[in-house]
Specification:
By secondary structure, the protein is α+β, with helices and mostly antiparallel strands. The protein has a domain of 93 residues: 2-Layer Sandwich (Gyrase A, domain 2), CATH 3.30.1360. Helix content is 63%, strand content 23%. It has three helices and four strands. A hairpin with a 2-residue loop joins strand 1 and strand 2.
Length: 189
């Protein structure tokens, strides 16, 4: 005998497909929600990690800027100290010049000439004195010009005065001090 299925099989099949469709739709929605939630957590973590990196970099930049300021102050202090050292070295190198100057003045001073005042401004030496005659002043200037420590003597003032019955010439002259380095002065001296 043949069996006849009187149930509405198409309707059952359609309902089964509808149920499967809705099940797949719910599963896809849940899967999509899970994916979106995971992506949100993932990107939030990346953003937080980048914020931490940025704050670390800002801290490091602040530290480096402080070090740069310290370095610039140290460099300015270094330049200041180097300038002071150069001044001290210059003074040290000029220290024996005064001894040579007075030695040279004694050697170049002829008889009949005496100095009353010696001043130095940088390399210019101003000599004031009294001489018995103008010829003595001329000899003194020639001796200064021949000196290895003084050069270019220039007569500024010469006045003749009668003091206690004798004639004297008051003079002012300038000469340039020749700076020798300390090594050559040691060899020459």
């Amino acid at each position: 005998m043949t069996h006849i299925n009187l149930l509405p099989w198409r309707e059952t099949q359609r309902k089964e497909r509808e149920r499967q469709f809705y099940s797949l739709l719910v599963a896809a929605t849940i899967l999509m929600a899970v994916i979106i939630f995971y992506m949100h957590l993932h990107f939030s973590g990346k953003i937080e990690e980048q914020h931490q990196r940025n704050s670390y970099m800002e801290q490091q930049i602040t530290l480096v800027n402080k070090k740069i300021k310290e370095i610039s102050t140290l460099e300015s202090e270094k330049e200041h100290l180097l300038a002071r050292m150069n001044i001290i070295q210059d003074l040290q190198s000029r220290r024996p010049l005064i001894v040579h100057l007075f030695d040279e003045l004694v050697k170049t001073l002829p008889k009949g000439v005496s100095l009353t005042n010696v001043t130095q401004k940088e390399t210019t030496i101003t000599l004031k004195g009294i001489a018995q005659s103008n010829a003595s002043i001329s000899i003194f200037m020639s001796n200064l010009d021949a000196s290895k420590w003084l050069s270019n003597p220039r007569l500024d003032v010469i006045q003749t005065n009668e003091k206690i019955g004798r004639r004297a010439a008051e003079f002012t002259l300038r000469a340039e001090l020749i700076s020798h380095n300390s090594n050559s002065s040691k060899k020459e001296g």
